[in-house]
Design a protein that fits this description.
The protein is of the alpha+beta class. The protein has two domains: about 5-195, no CATH class; about 200-270, 2-Layer Sandwich (Alpha-Beta Plaits). The protein is about 60% helix and about 10% strand. Strands 2-3-1-4 form a four-stranded antiparallel β-sheet, covered by helices on one side. A hairpin with a 6-residue loop joins strand 2 and strand 3 (about 235-245). Helix 2 (about 10-30) packs parallel to helix 5 and helix 3 packs parallel to helix 8.
């Protein structure tokens, strides 16, 4: 069974959703709620309602808020995605309400950093699956698929508005700590999203492009494309090499290029995601 088949299998996706939901729940119940902070998204909204009403539990409020969002997931994404998300929401709801312990972190800034890292890691793991833990995850995936809006960017923007609405209900310092935690969460989430997808895109300008391409194909087992170009000053026709490699292959490409042509010009750029043969496959929810 290849990795693509594994990534679409039910056990693998349930494992990712369960693991991510448990990690998020630990961050919420053992750090965020004991310190009186709020997260962003629907979990933060549920916690804020709980602080204000003192009724039900943060987990139950989270589940209630998710009901209309499930309908959006059904309409705009897929039935499979919805079922996975309902499962994730149930797991997260149970973990939030059942975890009995607290992390002994007293300093609020350290608590913000720890909670942001834990929640971001859990969210990132869930986003590697074909489902979600409900709430803002569903909305952010819809916006990402339809309009290309980055998931972490949307989450932070939503949270910023939520925190503005929190003034008057929570102490100002607590809101600022919560905002710092939200920013850390979004950064860690983005890191987990790109952890296995980020590659290096390399442009090489050389007088010996064919030789360099042959070496890349033979030694690194990577493809390369020759792009027609011309010198801006001389007007001389050139063939520019474009290749995409894993991070650990960058030095190998440099060795190949400069051993063949010491005067080669090499440009390396980060890529957010690479889809295609030899790299990642497109994820269909």
């Amino acid at each position: 069974m290849n990795f693509q088949k594994i990534s679409y299998s039910v056990p693998w996706n349930l494992f990712l959703i369960t693991l991510g939901s448990v990690i998020i729940g630990i961050g919420l119940k053992s750090i965020v709620i004991p310190h009186g902070m709020i997260t962003g998204g629907f979990s933060g909204t549920g916690i804020l309602i709980y602080y204000y009403t003192k009724t039900l539990t943060p987990g139950i409020w989270y589940f209630v808020l998710n009901i209309p969002v499930f309908i959006a997931g059904w309409l705009f994404i897929s039935k499979r995605f919805l079922l996975y998300s309902v499962y994730g929401t149930i797991i997260l709801t149970l973990v939030i309400d059942l975890i009995p312990f607290e992390f002994p972190v007293k300093d609020l800034m350290l608590a913000s950093i720890a909670a942001g890292t834990i929640i971001g890691a859990g969210s990132g793991i869930i986003f590697r699956s074909l489902g979600s833990a409900g709430g803002n995850d569903i909305i952010s995936i819809i916006l990402n698929q339809r309009y290309g809006i980055r998931i972490g960017t949307y989450n932070f923007s939503f949270n910023f508005v939520l925190f503005l609405l929190s003034f008057g209900l929570l102490e100002t310092d607590m809101i600022l700590y919560s905002m710092a935690m939200s920013y850390i969460t979004s950064q860690v989430l983005e890191y987990f999203m790109t952890l296995f997808n980020q590659r290096k895109m390399i442009f090489i300008i050389s007088k010996n492009p064919k030789e360099i391409v042959n070496e890349i194909i033979e030694k690194l087992k990577r493809g390369a494309t020759l792009i027609k170009g011309s010198g801006g000053y001389t007007g001389e026709k050139k063939e520019i090499i474009l290749t995409v490699v894993n991070n650990y292959q960058i030095k190998r490409v440099e060795e190949i290029a400069f051993n063949i042509d010491p005067d080669a010009f090499l440009i390396t750029e980060n890529t957010f995601n690479v889809l295609g043969k030899g790299f990642s496959t497109r994820k269909v929810y």
